[in-house]
């Protein structure tokens, strides 16, 4: 309808604040209330964008009550709590997730209908919160969901980047990056916490007190201010927090004199840059001073906050029993990025709280755990000792002492995945086989898959202008573009397939399985080879898709701007997906599990190869792809042969049935029992 129509509808619904509205009419009134009285837009506009913000604010009303209740419940019970520290979170869109978890999806769909909108039209307005680079960031977000779902007292800590992962535009010259301005208007999900602010120091020097204790003084001090994002769980009232830190200048540090003198840059200080952009991660070789500052900023702010909460929850006792700290606090470090937490906790305990080394070290050891996410040496960040001594002089003293003391102690660290190649063994599926053979399920399964493929085909047409056939086999590879992930091998396979089709007679072609190959992913802005791969995929697609002789048998699509919400359309519509990283290079991979769960068959590298001939093999593969390409094509041929609809559907059902193990709820349950040793703490 037109703007006038929308306003007319709005006028018929009374704007009434009702934060806990449950029925559609009351929800519609509460949405209208926000459209009128939350001062972001003119009340005379109710276009989809304004409708999204008003809807999100009304959902936030519902969340805030649960979020406050959860906080006071934890405060009262004072359970052991986990804090998940991560430099990345790939949250995606929050509205669909929130209405689903609050179990108000139908009520909201109904309320919006009264306001002249479909829920889907409104949810599509939301910008993805892309505060992460890839698998590591999405895993962190899945973990937050699971912690809330399992009613675990667990919070996330991260940074509130002004600009998240760039938006990928495809032009004639290939990928172009533009800033994804997720905070362009505002985020309806964050709650600025003006009461939660901590000082963070950089540079300066270490002073030795008369009693021999040490103090870090001087340098630059900025402030970390908290923004909380409520994280609702599924089928529970527990609503946890993702606390994102933003850098702010202290009023006394703002140099008005310099500003008046026209020196705006120095007057604005470095605080404005600390949280400006998400640093490119996922195996790039960059490690710069700003990144180090970001990492320390996250660690220091989070640990000061954790210690403050520990003290607040002493229950009126004056004396702090520091030995109790590890029975109240578990800190999980998501990869090496927040590992400065270790010397920072030591510093806070020794220099601020007056503990000795041994006691502080014992507490730190029992509090902090670390997950490793990579086997690529270039992804393990390094800084020169000169830089470290300059920026964090007290931490370097502590790090050197740790190094001296624990050099010969073997610490246990967990990786993200266990080799699970035998998990798909037939006996695991024995219980499910009768369902896969059941006469009704395969037909229902196929029609659900076809509907998802149709949605995906519509999406591809919308973003690329290329029409694809939902009855062709959908073969997908979506992940960051990287040489070790071998999108190049995939596209070479596609070229080979194209050439073979060209050589065939029309009759022979008709006997082949029509296929749509989709590749999507972002290439880091200065990673030339990755950008060339993006361009190659899109150029090969341009040739194949316009070749009338073969284009009803093969289409090649580069799906632009791969992100969480694009994945939500691609993964359900997939039938075959590619996880073909060079053996020994991928720590785990996570989208593989999402594909399998959605009834997609996967082609994956058999990593056991790596165990046999290790480095020799890697060297060979990196010299040229051809030996692997032949194997890959062999595999691809076999899977084409398997394209007997009935057989495929059965494999697809079994794939979903066997995926339970890969639920992040299961993973987090295991973390809670085995590492954090925390119990659930559900709201009564
Ligand atoms: O590359 C790894 C993936 O193999 C893994 O599945 C994912 C989640 O554990 O983490 C990715 N990763 C590793 N992202 N950044 C790094 C290095 O910091």
General description of the model:
- Keywords: Carbohydrate metabolism, Glycosyltransferase, Pyridoxal phosphate, Transferase.
- One of its GO terms (molecular function) is pyridoxal phosphate binding.
- Pfam families: Phosphorylase.
- With 684 residues, this protein is an alpha/beta fold.
- 48% of the residues lie in helices and 16% in strands.
- It has 3 domains: 1-77 and 94-127, no CATH class; 80-93 and 128-416, Glycogen Phosphorylase B (Rossmann fold, 3-Layer(aba) Sandwich); 435-669, 3-Layer(aba) Sandwich (Rossmann fold).
- A hairpin with a 2-residue loop joins β5 (167-171) and β6.
- The chain starts with a helix and ends in an 8-residue tail after the last helix.
- The structure holds 1-beta-D-glucopyranosyl-4-(hydroxymethyl)-1H-1,2,3-triazole.
- 1-beta-D-glucopyranosyl-4-(hydroxymethyl)-1H-1,2,3-triazole (RUG) binds at residues 134-136, 139, 281-283, 335, 373-374, 379, 416, 586-590.
């Amino acid at each position: 309808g037109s703007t006038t129509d929308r306003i007319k509808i709005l006028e018929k619904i009374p704007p009434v604040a009702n934060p806990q509205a449950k029925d559609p009419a009351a929800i519609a009134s509460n949405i209208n209330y926000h459209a009128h009285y939350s001062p972001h837009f003119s009340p005379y506009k109710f276009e989809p964008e304004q409708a999204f913000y008003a809807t999100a604010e009304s959902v936030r009303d519902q969340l805030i009550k649960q979020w406050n209740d959860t906080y006071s419940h934890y405060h009262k019970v004072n359970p052991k709590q986990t804090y998940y520290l991560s430099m990345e979170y790939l949250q995606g869109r929050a509205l669909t997730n929130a209405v689903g978890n609050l179990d108000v999806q139908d009520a909201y769909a109904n309320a919006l209908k009264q306001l002249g909108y479909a829920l889907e039209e409104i949810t599509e307005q939301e910008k993805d919160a892309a505060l992460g680079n890839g698998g590591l960031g999405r895993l962190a977000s899945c973990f937050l969901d699971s912690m809330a779902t399992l009613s675990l007292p667990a919070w996330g800590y991260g940074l509130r980047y002004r600009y998240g992962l760039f938006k990928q535009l495809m032009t004639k010259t290939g990928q172009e990056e533009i800033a994804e301005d997720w905070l362009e208007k505002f985020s309806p999900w964050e709650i600025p916490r003006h009461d939660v602010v901590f000082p963070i120091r950089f540079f300066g020097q270490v002073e030795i007190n008369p009693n021999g204790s040490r103090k870090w003084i001087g340098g630059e001090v900025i402030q970390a201010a908290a923004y909380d994002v409520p994280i609702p769980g599924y089928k529970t009232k527990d609503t946890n927090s993702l606390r994102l830190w933003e850098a702010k200048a202290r009023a006394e540090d703002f140099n008005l004199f310099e500003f008046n003198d026209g020196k705006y840059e120095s007057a604005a200080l470095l605080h404005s840059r600390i949280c400006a952009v998400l640093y490119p991660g996922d195996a790039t070789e960059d490690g710069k001073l700003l990144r180090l500052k970001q990492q320390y900023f996250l660690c220091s702010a989070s640990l000061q906050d954790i210690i403050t909460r520990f003290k607040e929850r002493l229950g009126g006792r004056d004396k702090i029993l520091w030995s109790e700290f590890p029975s109240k606090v578990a800190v999980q470090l998501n990869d090496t990025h927040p590992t400065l937490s270790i010397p920072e906790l030591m510093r806070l305990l020794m220099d601020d709280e007056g503990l000795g080394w041994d006691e502080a070290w014992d507490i730190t050891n029992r509090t902090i755990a670390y997950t490793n996410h990579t086997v690529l040496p270039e992804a393990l960040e390094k800084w020169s000792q000169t830089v470290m001594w300059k920026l964090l002089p007290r931490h370097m003293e502590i790090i050197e002492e740790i190094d001296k003391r624990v050099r010969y102690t073997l610490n246990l660290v967990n990786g993200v995945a266990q080799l699970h190649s035998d998990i798909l063994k037939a006996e695991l599926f024995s219980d499910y086989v009768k369902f896969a053979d059941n006469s009704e399920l395969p037909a229902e399964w196929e029609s659900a898959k076809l509907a998802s493929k149709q949605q995906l085909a519509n999406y591809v047409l919308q973003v690329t202008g290329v029409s694809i056939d939902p009855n062709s086999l959908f073969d997908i590879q979506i992940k960051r573009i990287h040489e070790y992930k071998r999108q190049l091998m995939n596209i070479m396979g596609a070229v080979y397939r194209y050439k073979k089709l060209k050589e065939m007679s029309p009759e022979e072609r008709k006997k082949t399985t029509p296929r749509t190959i989709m590749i999507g992913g972002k290439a880091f802005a200065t990673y030339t080879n990755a950008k060339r791969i993006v361009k190659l995929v899109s150029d090969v697609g341009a040739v194949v898709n316009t070749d009338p002789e073969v284009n009803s048998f093969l289409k090649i699509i580069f799906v632009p701007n791969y992100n969480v919400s694009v994945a939500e359309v691609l993964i359900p519509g997939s039938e075959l997906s590619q996880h073909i990283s060079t053996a020994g290079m991928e720590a785990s991979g996570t989208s593989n599990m999402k594909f399998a769960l959605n009834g997609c068959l996967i082609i994956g590298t058999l990593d056991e190869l790596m165990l046999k001939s290790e480095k020799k093999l890697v060297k060979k593969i990196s010299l040229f792809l051809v030996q692997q390409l032949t194997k890959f094509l062999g595999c691809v041929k076999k899977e084409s042969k398997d394209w007997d609809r009935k057989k495929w559907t059965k494999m697809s059902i079994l794939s979903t049935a066997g995926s339970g193990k890969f639920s992040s709820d299961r993973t987090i349950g295991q973390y809670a029992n085995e590492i954090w040793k925390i119990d659930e703490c559900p709201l009564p």
